[in-house]
Amino acid sequence: MPNDLKRIATPEGFAGPSRAARLRSLLASPHLAFIMEAHSGLSAKIVEEAGFEGVWASGLSMSAMLGLRDNNEASWTEVLDVLEFMADATTLPILVDGDTGYGNFNNVRRLVRKLGERGIAGVCLEDKLFPKMNSFLGERQPLADIAEFCGRIRAGKDSQADPDFSIVARTEALISGHSMDEALRRAEAYHAAGADAILIHSKRADAAEITGFMALWDNRCPVVIVPTMYYTTRSDVFRQSGVSMVIWANHLVRASIAAMRETAARIVKSESLMDVEDRVASVREIFALTGNDELEDASRRYLPAPRRITGVVLAASRGAALGDATMTMPKCMVDVRGKPLLHQLAGTLEKCGVTDVVVVRGYRKDAIAPAGFAVVDNDAYAETGEAASLACALPKLRGELVVVYGDILFRRYILEGLLDSAEDITIVVDAARRMHGNPRDLLRATIPDSGSYHSDEPAFLVGVAADRAVASGEWIGLMRLTANGTEMVRAECEAMRSEGVLDQADLAALLMRLTQRHKVAVHYINGHWLDVDTPGDLAEARNFS
Ligand code: SPV
Ligand code: MG
């Protein structure tokens, strides 16, 4: 690659020669270059994957791909749209089959400007009249007037924004039954008008016209050929005669027609996919060709990380007050409406997006089989309390946590509201249960629950309530920690362990210590939950839906 090629910056920061510069270099190089037909973004990718140095955006193939004839039935802007997909899909230079330029010099001017804007490296214009007909149809198709066609070439060259953009002038003189002299006369005039290369077209089954032209042309400027009809000629013949570039003009669209027909015929006949599965590209190959890996990387870079909340269910204690019901299983496993309490609870967590659940087991731990959740064991459950159980789970946990007793049930909206809290540590307090017969932990907060729709003043934990009269409510055993909050709790548990007070502490004691150093927010509720301590609670739980 010559050093003086114009260089471009890509989004990845790689600075390489521009596409127009690469096409120009392929044309100018003394080596024979090969470019391959494509008609869509996908086929352009396949051309690049195969190792070609450039793409021929064939008029015949792009029309066929649209289900149209090669007679300018597709408007030039429809073709431009296809080209844009192709240019986006490949990094290769694209030489576009521009047919006649879609009209006169004025149409060519706009075409060249728009092709440049779409990242197209060059255009091939043929010396026929709009609307064109494919070269292999009919005989003696009329040619354009030489001077008029030269005007199209000059107008194109004057309109290109990038000096490296190439215009290849194609003469149909031989195909239209004119003499070699006429072909040479036209090629010379087009070269003089500023064409960067000449495409000499032939529909003979041998390469005699091409080699004859090359001998007389004497390398006055690069020559491009399209050996569709003289396909039996070896490429060495082209190389030795000084051809610059070979266009394999329509073989991907033809290959796909053959493959599609065969596949469709097999499926319609067998009424099954069995016969074709091994003969067609896998869906994975489609993903690979269209760059799904890149999209996954980009998603990681640009999308917010999905919220990941872990639930810690403290379920180590027996629940002796339930009597016989907990002889063989911990109370989190007692049946509530056909399901263990723990499974009901895990279901509520999951519905709120708390999908990773860790259950801390202790008493009769074998009765808690992992079922969609992880387990951690507090084997010293008989001598330790809830804080020690939580501390068993913490070493492996990072990020946002919901900590919940294994013997409570609550309505989903309670957890949904809790998860909206902006505070690092938030506990759920039932303001209505101050007067309950057997409250667990009565707490005092900075303000009582106002019960008012308009009130959004936050409440924070102050301490344990000495009696019902001063209590703000009952802590229900449900707490939410942000990632920061988790670290605060971890540090507090470690401090308690080193002071020798962790083992005997319950979660209320842990909360009291936390309030010394941090704000513990209170999320008030009014009912819609229950805990299962006594046979009476269990009976109530069985009615809770
Ligand atoms: C095309 O590919 O559309 C061409 C080349 O113009 S040919 O069909 O060989 O004329
Ligand atoms: Mg064509």
Tally of DSSP helical segments: 18
* End-to-end Cα distance: 76 Å
Bound molecules: sulfopyruvate, magnesium ion
Oligomer: single chain
The assigned structural class equals: alpha/beta
Number of strands: 23
Tell me the β content: 15-25%
User: What is the share of helical residues?
Assistant: 25-40%
Strand order of the largest sheet: 3-4-5-6-7-8-9-10
Which residues sit in consecutive blocks of at least 5 with pLDDT less than 50? Answer: 1-5, 9-13
**What's the gyration radius in Å?**
39 Å
Largest sheet: 8 strands, parallel, barrel
Shape: elongated
Mean pLDDT: 92
What would you say this structure looks like, in words?
The chain is of the alpha/beta class. Helix content is 36%, strand content 19%. The protein is built from 18 helices and 23 strands. It has an eight-stranded parallel β-barrel with strand order 3-4-5-6-7-8-9-10, surrounded by nine helices. Strands 18-21-19-20-22 form a five-stranded mixed barrel. The two termini are 76 Å apart. The relative contact order is 0.08. Sulfopyruvate (SPV) is lined by residues 58-60, 70, 97, 134-135, 226, 228, 249-250.
